[in-house]
Amino acid sequence: MLFAAWAEAMDFSNLFAIPWDETAPFTTPDGLANPAQAIAVLETVAAEVEAQYDSFNVSWGDVFRLRMGEVDFPANGGPGYLGIFQVLSFAPDADDRFRAVHGDSHIAAIEFADPVRAMVLTSYGNATQPHSPHSGDQLELSARKELRPVWRSRPEIKAHLAARETV
Q1: Is 119 a domain residue?
Q2: Residues 11-30: pLDDT tens digits?
């Protein structure tokens, strides 16, 4: 949380002593252009975070949440400019916290082996109807940074079938 508040307050266009260079992607950017200013900003935002959340050491997931209906878990994604792999956008919520409202909602990892294997996550669940048992049912997996297996074969699908209707 503190790093995000600091990064938000800093001017990224002039932040680094050595700016990004596409010919040196593993070593740039590097160093702070103005370490004294970076420390001053850190002290300021640490005081602000502490005043708002009773500690400057508050964890990201305590403030940024994955919420849907009664489901509420700590978020682990965030703005892409922070270098976070799972990109999420947040909106203020009523309890001085922030709710994920946009971002990586479907993730898939596929291994093209024999047989093909796939793991996926649809973070908000496989249904958006408020009373569906599958609305938000994968948020906990998202909070734990886990994927679920894809059921591709007929036996796998039958084993996980919730209902079957013939019309």
Answers
A1: yes
A2: 888 999 999 999 999 999 99
Take residue 31 and report the two structure tokens written for it.
């160093």
Residue type, 98: F
Domain region containing 30: 2-53
SS (H, E, C) 22-78: CCCCCCCCEEECCHHHHHHHHHHHHHHHHHHHCCCCCCHHHHEEEEECCEEEECCCE
Q: How far apart are CA 75 and CA 63, in angstroms?
A: 8
Do 66 and 141 lie in one domain? The reply is: yes
| Domain total in the chain | 2
Spatial neighbors of 146 by CB under 8 A, at least 6 apart, are: 121
Residues 144, 88 within the same domain:
yes
Q: Could you give the CA distance from residue 102 to residue 125 in angstroms, rounded to a whole number?
A: 14
Q: Are 63 and 97 in contact (CB under 8 A)?
A: yes
Task: Tell me the residue ranges of DSSP E strands in the chain.
Answer: 16-18, 30-32, 64-68, 71-74, 88-92, 98-103, 106-111, 117-122, 148-149
pTM score, whole prediction: 0.79
Closest CA to 75 of 64, 86, 91, 84: 64
* pLDDT tens, position by position, 110-131: 999 998 999 999 887 776 677 7
Same domain, 32 and 87: no
